[in-house]
């Protein structure tokens, strides 16, 4: 069984009681925060190795490393083959800084996007811009629907049904 499937069985186990699952995720988030602190200290350094080597480097177990790789994969410059990876699969943690920050905001992971290391990477204006972009990316804007008998929005002065509405039929 691939590591990702094992990780998903453990992390989304429906048979565990809520308190146990909550403790599991609290522990994982602390591990994740620790890894990101180290990565963001040297954001331009490309960290790579096998899954096992990276787990050893960050002093965590293979499953926690699998979870971390799953979480960061969308922010990587070149995504890792997480669906099929095993302990000896070579992976890279070379991430796109802006994409990573936006993905952390999107995940509502304030314990990650508020890390002090980000202050060394982006200035306050850049962080504000990235934050706003991440929040607006999933915002659905409802536009006012033009009624058949309303004036046409093109400015012709005619009714919508006699102007642009006629073209849309």
UniProtKB/TrEMBL annotation:
<dbReference type="InterPro" id="IPR004027">
    <property type="entry name" value="SEC_C_motif"/>
</dbReference>
<protein>
    <submittedName>
        <fullName>SEC-C domain-containing protein</fullName>
    </submittedName>
</protein>
<dbReference type="Pfam" id="PF02810">
    <property type="entry name" value="SEC-C"/>
</dbReference>
